[in-house]
Amino acid sequence: MLESPRMFATLDPKLKQLQLPSRRKILLSDTVGFIRNLPHTLVTSFRATLEEVERAEVLLHVRDASSPIMEEQKRQVEAVLGELDVQGKPVIEVLNKVDLLPEEERARLAGGSVPGFDRSAMVAVSALTKYGLDALVEAIDEALVVDPLVESRLRLPQSEGAALAALEAGAVVSEKRFEGNLVHLTVRGPASLLGRYGRFRRDSRAVVVVGCEL
Questions:
Q1: Total Cβ atoms within 10 A of residue 92
Q2: SS3 193
Q3: How far is CA 211 from CA 18, 140, 150, 190, in A?
Q4: DSSP states of 61-84 as a string?
Q5: Which of 71, 103, 188, 211 has the largest CB neighbor count within 10 A?
Q6: What are phi and psi of 55, to 5 degrees?
Q7: 69-125 pLDDT, tens digit each
Q8: What is the pTM of this model?
């Protein structure tokens, strides 16, 4: 991770694939840092980069928790998001640089983390020390509503090795037991994945899981 005080040091957009605790895979894309009173001509120039914001399912608003003008910076970013007409998207407030804060302030921010399916959540992190990154990944997992998580009970023949491997690789298996030549599974994973194996469902019910911890 690049650390630099230079303006536009991270101008080039980057993509990174990440596997969430639910085993869903996502792409993380960064954008240019927003600047107060950014001229409209520059906003136009950065439009191609900012289009990533329009296509995103969840927005991570990374803020400098040590900045004395943190709230003003937040308002400026929200104004740009308003221009892009993306204010209705789920937002996770990522308060970075908490390693620069007094211990009491860090504890207060950590206690205020409320990851979930609300439109806005807050997670305190330090990119330098890696503090809070696991909580951030969990918050992203909870906020992602595309391809929702489904819990299902399946019964597969042991000869279905490819299906078993796909389920164990792409979903979380909470129960696995063998009975003769059958494998009984309780799995939680993306609806798109579990839907492929509906013929192995032990009953006709499937439960959409909302805000459930692993």
A1: 22
A2: helix
A3: 20, 11, 12, 14
A4: EEEETT-TTHHHHHHHHHHHHHHT
A5: 188
A6: -85, -10
A7: 888 888 888 887 887 788 788 899 999 999 999 888 887 777 654 344 344 588 999
A8: 0.71
